[in-house]
Write a structure and sequence with these properties.
Helix content: under 10%
Order of helices and strands: EEEEE
Shape: elongated
Number of helices: 0
Strand content: 25-35%
Strand order of the largest sheet: 4-3-2-1-5
Radius of gyration: 19 Å
Distance between the termini: 68 Å
Structural class: mainly beta
């Protein structure tokens, strides 16, 4: 008995939508720039809660960054380095816009 196997080409993967694009369509993380990492909450007063990070290097979707808190209760995190992805970063309102 002969078996017939059909192989169809796989469709190309859809590009992932960056989480901030709907709110901040013109912002893109850049090397040397600042961003928020982890949980970001925009309140009625425009405040953000998260770690402020300086972007050291971007390779594809991978990002190396260092925590830089200014006048913040989380000053003890300053200098901590993280490896994250573009999907973990958000713009800081008031700095980029």
């Amino acid at each position: 008995m002969t078996q017939l196997t059909l192989r169809f080409p796989e469709p190309p993967p859809k590009p992932k939508e960056l989480p901030w694009k709907a709110i901040f369509p013109h912002w893109m993380p850049e090397q040397g720039g600042l961003a928020q990492m982890h949980t970001v909450i925009l309140t009625g007063q425009g405040y953000c809660y998260g770690d402020t990070v300086r972007i050291n290097e971007i390779k594809g979707e991978q990002v190396a960054c260092t925590v830089e808190h200014f006048k913040d209760d989380n000053w003890w995190k300053n200098g901590t380095t993280y490896q994250c992805t573009l999907f973990d970063l958000w713009p800081i309102p008031g700095i980029h816009f």
